[in-house]
Each structure stands twice: as C-alpha cells, then as structure tokens.
Amino acid sequence: MGKITIREVSRQYGVTQDALRYYERIGMIPPVSRTAGGARDYQDEDLAWVELALCMRSAGLSVEAISEYVRLARLGDGTIKDRLALLQGQREGLLERQGQIAQALERLNYKIARYEDALKTGVLNWAEEENQQ
Amino acid sequence: MGKITIREVSRQYGVTQDALRYYERIGMIPPVSRTAGGARDYQDEDLAWVELALCMRSAGLSVEAISEYVRLARLGDGTIKDRLALLQGQREGLLERQGQIAQALERLNYKIARYEDALKTGVLNWAEEENQQ
DNA sequence: ACTTGACTTGGAGCTTACTCCAACGATTAT
DNA sequence: ATAATCGTTGGAGTAAGCTCCAAGTCAAGT
Prior knowledge:
CATH class of the domain at 6-93 in chain A: Mainly Alpha
Number of helices of chain A: 5
Number of strands of chain A: 0
Distance between the termini of chain A: 62 Å
Oligomer: homodimer
C-alpha cells in the first residue's frame, strides 16, 4: 500500500521532518493520520493542510495565526465568522507587507542601477547617502 | 540650535529608542553624530541611514544583510562591486518573497470570498480542505 | 532472534531581532 | 545646589520559530 511517510513529505515540500512534527504539535496543521504502529501516514487531506500551512508561512503569516485558523476550522461551522475575520486581518497584513516590499524594491533598483552605471563608466557621481525621495 | 534627539527620531519613525541604539551598535546604521555631552544628535545624513535601514528591515531584509551593506559602504569606493552583488542578491530574495505573498493572497482571497458567500447565503457548500489549484 | 534503519516523543538548545533593565552621566528647572 | 529629566552603556532577558538530541518503538531483512 502507498504509505506516505514524513520523509517523503519532507522531501517533496522542502521542509524538515522536525518542522513537520513541530507544526503538528503546535496545531498549525491538524493531527496527521497514523499507521497501526504509530508512524505518520499522510493522506491527501493531511497534505492539503501541510500545503496550506507552508504557503501561508512562506508569505509571512505567523505560526500563531495559522494555528488559530486551524483550531477554528476544526471546531466546525459555528466559527465561520471568526475565520472570515481572521483571514481578512491576515490579508490586510499581507497587503501592507506587499507595499513595504515594493518600496524597498524601488529603492534597491535605484541603487543597483547607480552601481551598475558606476562600474560601467568608472565614475562615482553620487554621495553614498543619496537616497531618493 | 535644532538638536535632533533619539526621542524625536523614535517618535518620527515609529521605532523604539532601544532599537535605534541596537541598530547602531551592530552596525546596521553608521555611528550617529553626538553632542559634546555624548548624546546622539541625528544629522540629515544619519537620518538618511536610519530611513534606509528601516525601509529595508520592514521589507524583510535581515539585520545582517543591511549591516554588511553599511560596512562595505563605509569602506569606500573599492567595495562597489561587492555592494552591487549584495543588493542584487537581496533583490532576488524580495522578488521571491513578493511571489510567495501573491500566492498566499490569491488563496486568502479565494477563501474569504467563500466564507463571505457562506455567511450571505447561510449555506456551506464546500469541504474545509478544499484548496484550489 | 537480532541487527538495521526509519520512526516516535519530550525536551533542551539555537538564531534572530529586539527589549528591558541597572547603574551611571549630562541638562534643565526651581 | 539640587532634584528631575533625559540621555548613556553593557549586559541580561524574551519571543518566535524552528533544530537537535536522547531514548525508545516498530518493521523489514538475514
């Protein structure tokens, strides 16, 4: 039978086994299915939770926020409003984050262009602290 | 005379005085100008560094990366190539980050729309683990 | 039966980025 | 002059998010 071990999940998603166990322990993903012997055997549903958690984590959501969402989801339909509020709050955070990254990228691009020019022409025609805007 | 204290900088940029001192101590900003008595008195140049550091930090650059850039900048023109490489590397990181956030936002928006619909219609017509894509 | 290898838990340890003192020095207000 | 206020440093403490063990269990191969 096609048992999906923690090793395979770790390899496939590029996350350590320790991290996967940690995520489960703190509730960032719900309890994973087990074999008779007690070893984790990830089902599609478990993998979906792992994927969701990793996606949100990589975007910068806190472990706490994701855990809270999972906790609410496991409580059932009565928590829809709470979940919606949580997700909206997290979206706000991501949008803000997005703006901050865009700003930093603008600045980085400006500096990079300057440095590239300096290397090409061999001329440094600006002061170090020159930060546009 | 218009002395700019750490208190004012803290207030203006929304960062604690402790953090400002910390940033200076570890070299994320160069040493700040001082009064005769030894108190910090931020000049325009100092403020430009503070602003740059905060912008980059808020986008997620590590304290170490910013410190390294500042260290190189203080070493003078011989470090242009290194600085360019550093900035390009950091830009790569930010672009990746941007993509991850975009992905998470897509997913969040999808879920949010579903929840809003469920609240409006009073009908839950999807499974919890339904994660599109 | 026994070694090998992958898995388990619980808990300690580590890294990053601050944050919070304590003890002291300098400026300002009375 | 002296108290209050604001600043200083050095170092310890904290929170988040893993990461790394140790000690044990389980399943497969010889």
